[in-house]
């Protein structure tokens, strides 16, 4: 707690005891406080902490006199807090402030923004990198992998998947994930300001205005359209039909406890698009169970992710499966894991997969079981860690599909061609 005492001393007012320090922390002053952007002539001497949650302030106190800044994310992005207003809110509702302060600190500790990576770029570029989550590649993987599964399943027996298509899908995943993040932050800027983990996102913090975000979004969508137009006509129509899901997903948390389902339907469109990009049509006996498996998997990992913000979500008034499942969360997670595995078994049967596929599926099942058994849903840091581990689960499944397809005999190519010719 020494650093916390030093922080307060910088603003005028020594701690009387360790008990005062702890009470000060419980009052909500958690985080990294800096006066970097303030007038050094300001003298906050009148603000003496007396060991309570309601220190008194002079009548002429304004937001320009005392504005500690709590850093959560990349360099030069901060959440400005008015000291008077903050303690007034505590006076009005101490219980709410104590709960919120705990997640204020948790949001800081669990931020996965790669500061060293982002700060290598000019300051004018940094907000756009953070807005598009380019510092957090986990989202790219989770969007790309379902399409990679589908492309690899559609490959000829004893053949590698189409590398050109995989490259296009990866670039498209990066661009569309960026676009989705921009749309999400534009819709949710009012909510993001109220949640500790999201309060320093560029639009919420004012680093980027809505017009700038809209221009950035248009550039992402324009390049994505060029990639889509390089596919066959069936895939162009199929890909364009997903835009409604992309645009509406950010609204779902306001109207339903199942935004994770909406995310799953959106994020895993590649299960359909990948197969059609290879074959020019859809084989529902493969694509439908693959899509259901991927959607169920998304609900699984995003519910774990949502438990990071469960208290803030309840406070702000947004909905999630984490709030819906509550104490039954692990039972529900087990159910979604089972749905995922069952549908992946169906995919293997319908594509005549070989033993490497099922070996990989067994390993993936063990990974899902490990997540459910070990995740601490009350610990945001562990929730984030388990969420990120799903990238490796997805890569494991992808490698098992590629290996299983390579293990097939080339005689199956004739059957595959016949199926593609008769499927609509």
TrEMBL record:
Transmembrane residue ranges: 138-157, 163-187, 234-252, 261-282, 288-307, 328-349
Domain of life according to the entry: Eukaryota
GO molecular function terms attached to this record: 4-hydroxybenzoate polyprenyltransferase activity
Cellular compartment(s): Membrane; Mitochondrion inner membrane
Principal location listed in the UniProt entry: membrane
PROSITE patterns: UBIA
Keyword terms: Isoprene biosynthesis, Membrane, Mitochondrion, Mitochondrion inner membrane, Transferase, Transmembrane, Transmembrane helix, Ubiquinone biosynthesis
Catalytic function, reaction form: all-trans-nonaprenyl diphosphate + 4-hydroxybenzoate = 4-hydroxy-3-(all-trans-nonaprenyl)benzoate + diphosphate; an all-trans-polyprenyl diphosphate + 4-hydroxybenzoate = a 4-hydroxy-3-(all-trans-polyprenyl)benzoate + diphosphate; all-trans-decaprenyl diphosphate + 4-hydroxybenzoate = 4-hydroxy-3-(all-trans-decaprenyl)benzoate + diphosphate
Cofactor: Mg(2+)
Name used for this protein in its record: 4-hydroxybenzoate polyprenyltransferase, mitochondrial
The organism of origin for this protein: Paramuricea clavata (Red gorgonian)
């Amino acid at each position: 707690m020494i650093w916390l005492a030093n922080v307060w001393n910088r603003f005028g007012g020594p701690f009387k005891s360790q008990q005062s320090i702890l009470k000060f922390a419980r009052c909500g002053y958690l985080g990294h406080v800096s006066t970097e952007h303030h007038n050094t002539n300001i003298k906050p001497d009148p603000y003496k902490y007396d060991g309570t949650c309601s220190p008194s302030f002079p009548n002429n106190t304004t937001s320009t006199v005392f504005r500690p800044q709590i850093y959560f994310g990349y360099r030069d992005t901060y959440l400005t807090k008015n000291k008077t207003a903050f303690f007034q809110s505590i006076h009005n509702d101490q219980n709410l402030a104590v709960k919120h302060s705990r997640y204020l600190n948790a949001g800081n500790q669990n931020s996965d923004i790669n500061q060293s990576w982002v700060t290598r770029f000019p300051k004018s570029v940094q907000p756009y990198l953070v807005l598009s989550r380019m510092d957090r590649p986990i989202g790219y993987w989770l969007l790309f992998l379902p399409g990679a599964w589908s492309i690899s399943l559609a490959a000829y027996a004893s053949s590698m998947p189409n590398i050109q298509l995989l490259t296009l899908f990866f670039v498209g995943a990066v661009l569309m994930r960026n676009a989705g993040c921009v749309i999400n932050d534009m819709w949710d800027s009012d909510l993001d300001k109220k949640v500790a983990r999201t309060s320093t996102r560029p639009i919420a913090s004012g680093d980027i205005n809505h017009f700038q975000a809209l221009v950035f979004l248009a550039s992402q969508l324009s390049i994505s359209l060029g990639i889509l137009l390089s596919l066959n006509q069936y895939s162009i129509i199929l890909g364009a039909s997903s835009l409604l899901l992309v645009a509406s997903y950010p609204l779902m948390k306001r109207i339903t406890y199942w935004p994770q389902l909406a995310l799953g339907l959106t994020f895993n469109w590649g299960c359909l698009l990948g197969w059609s990009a290879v074959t020019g049509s859809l084989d529902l006996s493969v694509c439908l169970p693959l899509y259901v498996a991927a959607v169920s998997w998304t609900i699984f990992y995003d519910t774990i992710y949502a438990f990071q913000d469960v208290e803030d979500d309840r406070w702000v008034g947004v909905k999630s499966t984490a709030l819906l499942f509550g104490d039954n969360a692990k039972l529900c997670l087990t159910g979604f894991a089972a749905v995922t595995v069952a549908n992946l078994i169906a995919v293997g049967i319908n594509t005549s997969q070989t033993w490497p596929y099922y070996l990989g599926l067994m390993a993936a099942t063990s990974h899902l079981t490990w997540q459910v058994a070990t995740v601490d849903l009350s610990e945001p840091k562990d929730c984030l860690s388990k969420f990120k581990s799903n990238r490796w689960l997805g890569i494991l499944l992808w490698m098992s599909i590629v290996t299983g397809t390579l293990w097939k005999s080339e005689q199956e190519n004739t059957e595959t061609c016949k199926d593609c010719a008769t499927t609509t």
